[in-house]
Each structure stands twice: as structure tokens, then as C-alpha cells.
Amino acid sequence: RGSANSLQAGGRIEEILSRQYEDPLLVDADDGYDPAVPDHGPMALPSGRGTIEWEVDDDFPVVNAKRITVTVRAPTHGLSGGAFAYDYVKARDLR
């Protein structure tokens, strides 16, 4: 079950990161950085056995880049379960 959730989360992360720089799902909705209060989500994983959410921080670590912290939460036997956070940087295409 854990490996299936990891694959589904990885697929969702790839989908998020493949979006255009100005896509609404990559907007820093609260104009700040607090992964405990994410800008987007939670969204259910296709299996229904976990969620994914993400926080966006504009112009970090440099101007024209976004830090995207993705948190994947998986229930464990009906409890709140574990959470894993992944940090990514997406740069604006300046061509």
C-alpha cells in the first residue's frame, strides 16, 4: 500500500511541477511561506488513502524562482498517519 501511495504522490508532484510558472496552482495565495497552512490542497490521492497539499513561496531562493513545498499525508490504520514534505524549486523560463 505504501509503495502505491508513493507512486501516486510522485505522479501528482510531477503534474504540479510541470505546470506553467504562472499557473493558478502555483500561485502564492497568502503571499507568505507557512507549510502548516498550505496555499493549495489538500487533494486526495487517487487511491483515497492519503492527501497532497503544497505551499508556494515566490522569489525564493532567488528572484524569478518559486519554492514549492509539497506535503504528502498518508493515514495509518485509521489514525492521522505520517506526513512527508518535499521541497522543489521552479524557475521562470526567461526565454
Top keywords for this entry?
95 residues; alpha+beta; four-stranded antiparallel sheet; 4 strands; 40% strand; globular
Q: Which word captures the global form? A: globular
Q: Figure out the total of helices.
A: 1
Overall structural class, as computed from helix and strand content, comes to alpha+beta
The count of β-strands is: 4
| Sequence stretches where pLDDT stays below 50 over 5 or more residues | none
The oligomerization state is single chain
Question: In short, what is this structure?
Answer:
By secondary structure, the protein is of the alpha+beta class. Helix content is 17%, strand content 40%. It has a four-stranded antiparallel sheet, with helices on one face.
Describe this structure in words.
The protein has 1 helix and 4 strands; from the N terminus they run αββββ. The chain has one helix spanning 2-17; strands spanning 40-44, 51-58, 65-76, 79-91. It has a 4-stranded antiparallel sheet with strand order 1-2-3-4, covered by helices on one side. The model has no long low-confidence stretch (mean pLDDT 88).
Question: How would the blueprint of this fold be written?
Answer:
Elements: H1 2-17, E1 40-44, E2 51-58, E3 65-76, E4 79-91
Antiparallel strand pairs: 1-2, 2-3, 3-4
